[in-house]
Amino acid sequence: AGLVKVRMKGDMAVAGVEIDPSLMQEPQEILEDLLAAAVNDAVRRAQSAAQECMASVAAGISLPDGFKMPI
Prior knowledge:
With about 70 residues, the protein is an alpha+beta fold. It contains 1 helix and 2 strands. It has one helix at about 30-60; strands at about 5-10, 15-20. The longest helix has about 30 residues, at about 30-60. The model has no long low-confidence stretch (mean pLDDT about 85).
Protein backbone atom coordinates (compact mmCIF):
# COMPACT_ATOMS: atom_id res chain seq x y z
CA ALA A 1 0.00 0.00 0.00
CA GLY A 2 1.40 3.33 -1.08
CA LEU A 3 1.19 6.69 0.57
CA VAL A 4 -0.67 8.07 -2.45
CA LYS A 5 -3.48 6.03 -4.01
CA VAL A 6 -5.39 6.81 -7.19
CA ARG A 7 -8.61 5.01 -8.14
CA MET A 8 -9.29 5.01 -11.86
CA LYS A 9 -12.34 3.91 -13.83
CA GLY A 10 -12.14 1.75 -16.94
CA ASP A 11 -12.48 4.84 -19.13
CA MET A 12 -9.28 6.20 -17.51
CA ALA A 13 -11.17 8.83 -15.51
CA VAL A 14 -9.75 9.37 -12.02
CA ALA A 15 -12.41 8.31 -9.52
CA GLY A 16 -10.54 9.34 -6.38
CA VAL A 17 -7.23 10.19 -4.77
CA GLU A 18 -6.06 9.32 -1.25
CA ILE A 19 -3.00 11.02 0.23
CA ASP A 20 -1.56 9.82 3.53
CA PRO A 21 -1.70 12.74 5.99
CA SER A 22 1.98 12.23 6.86
CA LEU A 23 2.88 13.51 3.38
CA MET A 24 1.44 16.93 4.05
CA GLN A 25 4.70 17.83 5.81
CA GLU A 26 6.79 16.96 2.72
CA PRO A 27 7.93 19.48 0.12
CA GLN A 28 5.49 20.09 -2.72
CA GLU A 29 7.85 18.53 -5.29
CA ILE A 30 7.88 15.18 -3.46
CA LEU A 31 4.09 15.12 -3.23
CA GLU A 32 3.82 15.96 -6.94
CA ASP A 33 6.22 13.13 -7.85
CA LEU A 34 4.31 10.63 -5.72
CA LEU A 35 0.99 11.72 -7.23
CA ALA A 36 2.36 11.40 -10.78
CA ALA A 37 3.68 7.91 -9.99
CA ALA A 38 0.32 6.87 -8.51
CA VAL A 39 -1.59 8.14 -11.57
CA ASN A 40 0.81 6.35 -13.93
CA ASP A 41 0.40 3.13 -11.94
CA ALA A 42 -3.40 3.47 -12.05
CA VAL A 43 -3.29 3.98 -15.84
CA ARG A 44 -1.13 0.86 -16.29
CA ARG A 45 -3.47 -1.20 -14.11
CA ALA A 46 -6.59 0.05 -15.92
CA GLN A 47 -5.03 -0.71 -19.32
CA SER A 48 -4.00 -4.17 -18.15
CA ALA A 49 -7.51 -4.88 -16.85
CA ALA A 50 -9.00 -3.71 -20.17
CA GLN A 51 -6.63 -5.97 -22.12
CA GLU A 52 -7.51 -8.95 -19.94
CA CYS A 53 -11.21 -8.25 -20.42
CA MET A 54 -10.83 -7.97 -24.20
CA ALA A 55 -8.77 -11.16 -24.30
CA SER A 56 -11.49 -13.10 -22.49
CA VAL A 57 -14.20 -11.65 -24.74
CA ALA A 58 -12.22 -12.34 -27.91
CA ALA A 59 -11.13 -15.85 -26.84
CA GLY A 60 -14.10 -17.50 -28.55
CA ILE A 61 -13.89 -15.46 -31.75
CA SER A 62 -12.05 -16.88 -34.73
CA LEU A 63 -10.00 -14.10 -36.29
CA PRO A 64 -7.62 -14.19 -39.24
CA ASP A 65 -3.92 -14.65 -38.46
CA GLY A 66 -2.25 -11.35 -37.64
CA PHE A 67 -5.50 -9.53 -36.85
CA LYS A 68 -5.19 -7.35 -33.76
CA MET A 69 -8.15 -6.10 -31.78
CA PRO A 70 -8.10 -2.35 -31.16
CA ILE A 71 -8.02 -1.44 -27.50
